[in-house]
Amino acid sequence: LWGLICLFCVWQDGSGKLSRVVRVGTRKSQLARIQTDSVADKLKELFPELSLEIVAMSTLGDKILDTALSKIGEKSLFTKELENALERNEVDLVVHSLKDLPTTLPAGFTIGAVLKRENPHDAVVLHPKHVGKTLETLPENSVIGTSSLRRAAQLKKRFSHLLFKDIRGNLNTRLKKLDEKEDFAAIILAAAGLGRMGWENRIGQVLGPEDCMYAVGQGALAVEVRSRDVDILEMVSVLHDPETVLRCIAERAFLRHLVVCLSVCLSACLSVCLPLYLTGAVYSLDGSDSLKETMQTSVSSDAVDERVQHVGVTATRIPGEAQDGAERLGVDLAKLLLSKGAKEILTVARQLNDAR
Ligand code: DPM
């Protein structure tokens, strides 16, 4: 392993000095920069001789700020430009939130590292005048800002005294819209993103799975690389957190199976623990129709490394058998929900959302 890494790091230039610059692509938002810097710092710690350069770029998702996310739809909105830069060799790796990465990556790319998951839950950020309240105690007809169909569907059903409206923009923009106007009583954001921004103190309430199940991959960072770039793949693979990898393979397999079967782009939601228990659910847009099931598998782990992708993830250091088991769990759970009518719920949800 070290032989390989050093071969890659030690690149002789004309002057005989060590120089191999690894370029790291990122979006320009503050959250994206923080996430990228945290991964770059870890790489520098593990490979002190490595020279890293951060390349920041805007993506389509950053430019279209006035349309509901669910309308402009594709998850690749935030990742396409970065993948183009990877393809053109302008950058060597890209740091993403795993939940923003489609479950099927374009050919030639793979997720070379999934880092240890932070708090995967969603959180309520309250307007300053409502501090101390919860979703339950907010006044009748209070407006909650979220562009996530997943969050709105679950919360509408549970907190029927509240109204839900789209809110767009990066985290800084959203907090500003919340604090400086009277449009929203609260907004819903991922606890992980708030934590990375240093805004934990704005969290009024963390939503457990009984209130709002989190999205596939939420709270974990992923490093996307060219799948043929064995040196970079080998280098970033030390960042993998085995438990997070297995959980996220199960989650992504679940979502991919639903998406492939239905060709819908709706988030399904779930939570996992080891030994792998996977709870998955699908919801109609207003949450009135839903299906939720839990399945489990024991992930045995004796098999050897292999460079096989599991829902886009390459994790050579994690036993292939365990990854297979996690992927099967996700697919089986999706099949179970489909057999109980998930297809009908998601098809209607999709039609209604398209017509909004
Ligand atoms: C995806 C969704 C959202 C992001 C949809 C969902 C939230 C959109 C919104 C797929 N990507 O979760 O149902 O609130 O309008 C995103 C955030 C993070 C990664 C911000 C957030 C940070 C947390 C993480 C946007 N992507 O969800 O509050 O790394 O998991």
From TrEMBL:
Record's protein name: hydroxymethylbilane synthase
Xref: PANTHER family: PORPHOBILINOGEN DEAMINASE (PTHR11557)
Signal sequence segment: 1-16
Cofactor: dipyrromethane
InterPro entries: HemC, Porphobilin_deaminase_N, Porphobilinogen_deaminase_C_sf
Record organism: Cyclopterus lumpus (Lumpsucker)
One Pfam family matching this protein: Porphobil_deam
Enzyme class: transferase
Entry annotated with the keyword Signal: yes
Family note: Belongs to the HMBS family.
Record bears the keyword Transferase: yes
GO molecular function, one term: hydroxymethylbilane synthase activity
Keyword list, A-Z: Porphyrin biosynthesis, Signal, Transferase
Domain of life: Eukaryota
NCBIfam families: hemC
BP term (GO), one: heme biosynthetic process
Record-level GO cellular component terms: cytoplasm
Residue intervals of the Porphobilinogen deaminase N-terminal domain: 22-233
